[in-house]
Design brief:
- This protein is of the alpha/beta class and 662 residues long.
- It has three domains: 2-240, 3-Layer(bba) Sandwich (Glucose Oxidase, domain 1), CATH 3.50.30; 252-534, TIM Barrel, CATH 3.20.20; 546-659, Distorted Sandwich (Glucose Permease (Domain IIA)).
- It is 42% helix and 19% strand.
- It is built from 22 helices and 26 strands.
- It has an eight-stranded mixed β-sheet with strand order 1-8-7-3-4-5-6-2. Strands 9-10-11-12-13-14-15-16 form an eight-stranded parallel beta barrel, surrounded by six helices.
- A hairpin with a 5-residue loop joins strand 21 (594-598) and strand 22.
- The structure holds phosphoenolpyruvate and magnesium ion.
- Phosphoenolpyruvate (PEP) is lined by residues 182, 279, 281, 320, 415, 436-439, 486-487.
Amino acid sequence: MSRYECRTAQKGFAAGKAFVILPDRKEAYRQGNPAEENARLEAAAAEMNRTLMAGEKQADPAGAAVIDAEILILEDEEFLGAARKAIREEGLSAPEAVKQAAEKLCEKLMASGQDYIRQRCEDVRGLAAGLTALITGEAEMPAEPCILAGSELSPGQITMIGQEKILGILTETGSPTSHVSVLAGNYGIPYLYGLENLTEKVRTQDYLILDPEGEGVLVNPPEEKRREAEARQAEIREAREKQQKQAAGKKTRTKIDANISRAEEADGLPEKGADGIGLFRSELLFLNGTEAPAEEEQFAVYRHAAEAMAGRETVIRTMDIGSDKHAAWLEIPEEINPALGLRGVRVSLANRELFRTQLRALLRAAAYGNVKIMIPMIAAEWELDEVLKEIQVAAEELEKRGEKYRIPETGVMIETPAAVMIAPRLAEKARFFSIGTNDLTQYTLAVDREARGMEQYSNPMHEAVLRMIALTTEAAHAKQIPVAVCGELAGNPEGAEQLIRIGVDELSVSPAKLAAVRERAAEIEERIEREARKDRDEGIRSPAEGELVPMEEIPDPVFSGGVMGECVGVIPADGKIYAPVSGTVTTVAATKHAVSLRRNNGEEILVHAGLDTVRMNGVGFRVHVREGESVKQGQLILEMETDLVRERGFNPMIIVVRIKSL
Ligand code: PEP
Ligand code: MG
């Protein structure tokens, strides 16, 4: 047995056989266009047919009967015909189409009460595995659920193999914020990285245990450890299913949505407790082929997701190609810094025909469900204007063709600091915002999300990122549009708390995290409600020792006239100023003479130290709190040198204002 320490991209626990993708095998996971995929399927089916016929001739009567049954399955229209149809109409790769056809046929067989018919499922699955091996060239597609390992893996490989076949992921390069990691998180798959010279240490069929919070990576452990690990894996699965059932029924004010990458992931999502789909990463459709998926193919995929959600919101992001998400067929000039290059909406606007094809498919799918369009990587208002124009062009084209369509609401992903800063203007044109904290963290903190060894710099809870989120939320709510968060921060327990406190309306997380996030959101909302009740009972306390002055006697018309709201003055005995209420610090004046707090019940309270003291430019003031910080009633927030204030000719009266809501 060997043991290795690795880094954790996604927590969890997994045990099973390794399936190692060697660099020169990557080609096998590339998906061709439907004609190529169909050719791969037909060639493999013909090869299998020949092999079976030859076997039947040599077998004894019992064996021949078994083989004959296999030939019948292979010739069954419900199997091979269904696979051909899935390639043609849904744009699946040949292995995926075989898998789907086999599963559908098995579902039908399982519905029959007859034992012997049910046993045929085994035959169907066996045949599908054989056919898949022929299509991909043996052992390029794992036949059983495995731990996928490789020096480096791409998002396309993960989707091609399919989440149900992947128990865990192990790579040499990687990072917790990479797209492979995001996908692993989406599927609830543990992911470890950082195993140097991986292909020399792990081979296909080795037994692996991935235990990020325990022993790290074990290669070929003794039998007893394997049994223990498998029992633990089964327990974790059961506990997750139980939690899912319990949480699905819990009501929360915050909408809890799911992030998906393939249409089939939408199946059964409402039952798993998703209020909607907050992010469908459509680009995964574009990454594996030798050309872009056709309008029909895309339409079928988007429609599938929309119909599976049965009227619930289905937010489909237009292709976010570029940076680490390569589409081999799309020419993007060599870039030194691809994360800052042609990606997201920039690719769409640079390839108008490609973009219009996607928009037409989206508009058509919108006629079948509650589809919304979301645009990634917006950094300027003109980009959104161009997108909205393209949507109109796509609608006109469909109109001319006499096609059934609907123009869905269009929203913007907020994932660049530029988008945050112009959020008030974007909010006039977009119907919703969705904050992509993965990229917003990357671009705000200037830290490459794909790079290894940058973990300590990549912190989505950094004050700068949280303030960006708060600014975006304010801008959206000022224009009455909702804000979702669809980056990984939404699925992190502390992150979810911060986001709910900031006031976002939706959290969109991986399907595997739906239950945990729903439970957490319910708990946080209840706590906030309790705190708000306490606030109401708590009242407003004087911010300093001293004599109270009624509003109308304050010697400043701005305050005495109630311009900002109801207020009271205090002639302070000393310069120590305490929070009059518990809440979150929303602003600290640059000149340090004023702090405003938001109570849990939403009320804004301003503490203003001295009259006209803005003119002191911060001299004589010390602030003890930061924006975004939570404070308790009675906590020291500010100090003012009252003697200095008087010396400079100002009045040190402290004013507490209950800000009027507009
Ligand atoms: C994000 O950037 O937070 C996001 C959700 O998009 P992606 O991770 O696909 O770039
Ligand atoms: Mg992003």
